[in-house]
Amino acid sequence: MARIAVVDDSPGTRAFILAALAKGGHEARELEPTCLFEVFKALHEDPPDLLITDLVMPDCPGHTLIRLCREDAHLRDVRILLLTAHGDAALGLFLQQMGGTHYLAKPVSPTMLAECVDQVLAPGTEPDPGWSLACRGTIAVVDDSHLSRAFHAAVLRKAGFRPVPIEPGGLLETVVAIEAEQPDLLVVDYLMTEFNGDALIRAIRAREALQGVPVLVVTAHRADEIQTLLVPLGGVEVLFKPVRPDDLVEAVRSGLLQG
To answer: Where is the signal peptide (predicted)?
Structure first.
């Protein structure tokens, strides 16, 4: 049976995690993070198989605790599950640099937490720290603007989706790249250098594997013209720039439900 340590400055959250793990057949010990070095000492003296930790803790910052573990010979290979409501692209990059570290976004159900712990502990599991293990869907983001791709990806990643930014080349090349990812939804710009969004949508509708994928077109183009071009294609929603993060997330969630 795996040995699990739980570090969180909220007694209620620690109790929730311990109960969820017990329900999933795991045993765990809790460490109250009143002092970073006391927590680190306890982990060093009795290394767990898995460390579940919060990120924002006044007396034991999660970033620092993870870094200390990775720099310690006894804790270097311990698997870590960061359970937090705070997440962005910078955090994803940090976790990627730390290695063996997974990220799970709060709020999370007891069942989902137990299932994710099983996944993290499974032999050969590779972390994908850029998105939550409780992934809400894979979203392909096609835009010829690097900044737009990065913005959309960061917003979706923070909301628990797995974004796949795709830089559009030729039309066929782009369709093949999308098909390889098997996305649950496609976010696409309309005016792009090599082709327009409606041409891409027609091309993916011609591929059996992509025919049912819902599409969200994000554009600054004129509303009346866009609607006339896209409505006949079916399964296409439109979001007009400038886009607020909350609007993008809500449009993606709505598209997934309708798809």
So the answer is: none
